[in-house]
C-alpha cells in the first residue's frame, strides 16, 4: 500500500477543499515507466488555487503535489540514463516536450497533482522514464524536493521569455514565494542586478542574503520612486511579476526601461488594465507558466553549473503531516519552499 494526500470535495459551504490521507494500492509501473519511492515532496502556490476552488481541471480523489524526489526501486523497460537505485526528481507536468512556444498538444497538457494526472504527495509513484531526471548530487533531499515546478517556472520566465543577461537590471516582485526566490537566485547567478518587492520588510532583507541588491515595500505610496533611487535612476530591463494588479501599471509607466520585457507568471492580485503606456513605451508583455521537458533538463544543468540551492522555509516530517503542511501554506507566512519528508535517506 501507499499512503497519499488526496484532494476531497468540502462542499459548497466551505471556502477550501479538504486534504485527506488515504491508503492506496502501490502503483505498478507500466512499460517504459519506473516505480519511485518518494523521499520528500514539496508544495507550490498552485496548491492554494486548487484548495481554494480556483484551479481548472481538478479531480477529487487525485493525489496532490507536483514536486518530489525519490529513488527508483523498479524499472519496467530499458533506459540508457536511469537504473534502480538512482535518486531522481520528477518532471511536474505531462504533455510538453520541447516547443519553446508552449505545449505541443495543449488539450492534453496537464500538471501533476489534484488533476487527472495524480501527484507526488505519496509514498510511491510511477512515472515515465522520460520524465525522471537524476537529482543534482550536492543537494539534500529536502532541497531537491522543492526544485522542479518553481525552478522550472523561474527558468523559463527568466531565460526563455525574459532573455536575462549579465549586467541587466531585473526586478522580481513578491519575493518570498518559490518561483520568485529561484528567479532571484538565477538572475544573480548570471550577473544581473536584481531588486525585489514585498509587503514584508523582513523578506526584503532576507532576499539580500541571496543576491538582491535592494528592494522596496510595494505598500509604500511612492515605492516606484524609492526603487529608482536605489538604482540611481536606472530603470529595469526585465521584470518578473507574479501579481499583476495596479502595481503592474506603475511598473510599465515608470519602473521599466524603454522596450523592457515584462514577464508575468501569475495574477495573485488580479487582472489590470495596463493602458497605452504598454505600447507607447514599447514594452514586451509576455505571459508564461511552467516549461517544457527540454527546459526542465536545461534548468537542472544550470542549477548544477551554478550550484544553486533551493531555499527551504519549513519542513514537515512524515506523510501524516501533509494536511498540516497545506494549512501552513494557506497561512502565507513562509519564506521559501514548504517540504514534507516522507522517508528519510539512510
Automatic annotation (TrEMBL):
Note the SUPFAM superfamilies from the entry.
GroES-like, NAD(P)-binding Rossmann-fold domains
Which superkingdom, per the lineage? Answer: Eukaryota
Per the database record, which ranges form the Enoyl reductase (ER) domain? 11-340
What one GO molecular function would you report for this record? oxidoreductase activity
Q: Which InterPro entries match?
A: ADH-like_C, ADH-like_N, ER, GroES-like_sf, NAD(P)-bd_dom_sf, Zinc_ADH-like
> What protein name applies here?
Enoyl reductase (ER) domain-containing protein
Per the UniProt record, the source organism is Actinomortierella ambigua
